[in-house]
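User: Here's a structure from my thesis project, written as structure tokens. My advisor, Dr. K., wants to see whether a designed sequence matches the one we expressed. Can you design one independently, without my sequence as a hint?
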């Protein structure tokens, strides 16, 4: 069965950095584009970043461009999100998702606060 396990979240001060990971199993990871979403309290889930199956193309939500970087290691079946210059408005639960598949992990909480 498909499993997605997000990790790497935590509490960080504004301006800080975190690196999220998503360990994937149960499907051919290298055959799917991957997305990072986030959901803040009382808000809809929103798309943050997307990467192609080969990792050669990426795209980002405007508010994270230049601060976040999505990447993947197909040999390790793992997706990453490097988050720099974090802001309080980045506070949310972050989820990874294979493009076209309705599978979700438990998410990882990111809190940006003094």
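Assistant: Designed independently from the structure alone:
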């Amino acid at each position: 069965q498909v499993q997605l396990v997000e990790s790497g979240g935590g509490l960080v001060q504004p301006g800080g950095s975190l690196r999220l990971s998503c360990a994937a199993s149960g499907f051919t990871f290298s055959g799917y584009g991957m997305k990072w979403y986030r959901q803040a309290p009382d808000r809809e889930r929103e798309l943050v970043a997307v990467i192609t199956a080969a990792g050669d193309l990426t795209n980002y939500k405007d508010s994270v461009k230049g601060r976040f970087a999505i990447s993947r290691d197909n040999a390790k079946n793992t997706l990453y999100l490097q988050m720099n210059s974090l802001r309080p408005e980045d506070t949310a639960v972050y989820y990874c998702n294979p493009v076209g598949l309705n599978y979700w992990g438990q998410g990882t909480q990111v809190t940006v606060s003094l």
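When you compare it with your expressed construct, this may help: The mean pLDDT is 97.
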